[in-house]
Design goal:
With 175 residues, the protein is of the alpha+beta class. 43% of the residues lie in helices and 15% in strands.
C-alpha cells in the first residue's frame, strides 16, 4: 500500500540546488562515468515553489544498466521502489532516505528516451518562462489542497499540464 502523507508545497529554497550538487558528488562514488545525473522537477527551477524533495534523473544507456546499479545505490542509502514500475515501466525509482521523510527521489531512465527528453524539456521551459512557471505553481498549490494526502492523485492531476507544456500546446500568455 502506498504511503500517505500530505502534499506540502514549500516556497522556493535556494539550498535546493546546493543539496542536489552535494548529493551528486556523493553519488559519483557509485556511478560509472557514462551515467548522467540531472536535477529535474520544481526544485530545479529557481523561484518555483515545490514539494521539498530533490528530484534527480539518472540517465544510462539501458534500464538493465540502471538495474545493475541498484545494489550500489542501496548501499549509499537509497530504497528501490519497484511498485512504481506498474505506473511507469520505463523508469526505475529510488528514494533516500529509506525512512520518511524523503529528501531525494532518483528516477533512472534511458538517456535520450522519451522520459529523459520530456523531463529536461519541461524543466527548461519552466526555467525560461516565468509566466508558465507561475501557472504551474498555482496549479500545484491548488492540487495540493484538493488531493490532501493522495500523492498519486496529485501527480496524475499535474500530468495534462506538463504534457501540454512539453508538446507546446498549452496556451501561452503574451507579454
Amino acid at each position: 500500500m502506498a504511503h500517505r502523507a500530505p502534499v506540502v508545497i514549500a516556497a522556493y529554497n535556494d539550498q535546493w540546488p546546493v543539496r542536489f550538487h552535494e548529493e551528486s558528488k556523493a553519488l559519483a562514488s557509485v556511478l560509472p562515468r557514462h551515467f548522467v545525473l540531472e536535477h529535474i522537477g520544481s526544485t530545479a527551477v529557481p523561484g518555483l515553489s515545490a514539494k521539498p524533495v530533490i528530484d534527480m534523473m539518472l540517465g544510462a544507456d539501458s534500464l538493465a544498466d540502471i538495474e545493475r546499479l541498484i545494489p550500489a545505490l542501496e548501499r549509499v542509502g537509497y530504497e528501490y521502489v519497484a511498485r512504481h514500475e506498474a505506473e511507469i515501466p520505463d523508469r526505475r525509482f529510488l528514494a533516500k532516505p529509506v525512512m520518511r521523510p524523503r529528501h531525494f527521489h532518483l528516477h533512472g531512465v534511458v538517456m535520450g528516451g522519451t522520459i529523459w527528453r520530456e523531463q529536461l524539456r519541461f524543466r527548461d521551459l519552466l526555467r525560461s518562462d516565468a509566466a508558465l512557471a507561475g501557472r504551474y505553481a498555482a496549479l500545484k498549490q491548488h492540487l495540493a489542497g484538493v488531493f490532501g494526502d493522495d500523492r498519486a492523485g496529485y501527480t496524475d492531476a499535474k500530468r495534462d499540464f506538463i504534457h501540454a507544456a512539453v508538446r507546446g500546446t498549452i496556451a501561452r500568455r503574451t507579454e
